[in-house]
Amino acid sequence: MPRNLLQDIKKIETTKRNKILNKYIPAVSKINEANINNNEEQKIKGSRYTLWIVALISLIFLFFALSFLFSKATVTINPKIKTLSLNQNLSAVKDSNTDKLSFDLVVLSDQESRLIKGGEEKDLKESAKGKVLLYNKFSSSPQLLLINTRLEGSNSKIYKTKTKTVIPGMNKDGTPGKVSVDIYALAPGEEYNSIPLDFKIFGFKGTSKYSKFDGRSVGDITGGFIGKSRQITDIQKTIAEKELKTSLENKLFNKVVSQIPEGFVLFKDATFFNIDDSDISPTSPDGSITINVQGTLYGFIFNEKKLTKKIVEFFIPDYDGSEVYISNIKDLTFALSNKEGIIFNDVTSIDFNIYGVQKVVYKFDSTKLVSELPGKNKKDFNQILSQYQNIDSASLSIRPIWKLSFPEKSKNIKVIVNYPK
Question: What's the predicted TM-score (pTM) here?
Answer without folding.
Answer: 0.57
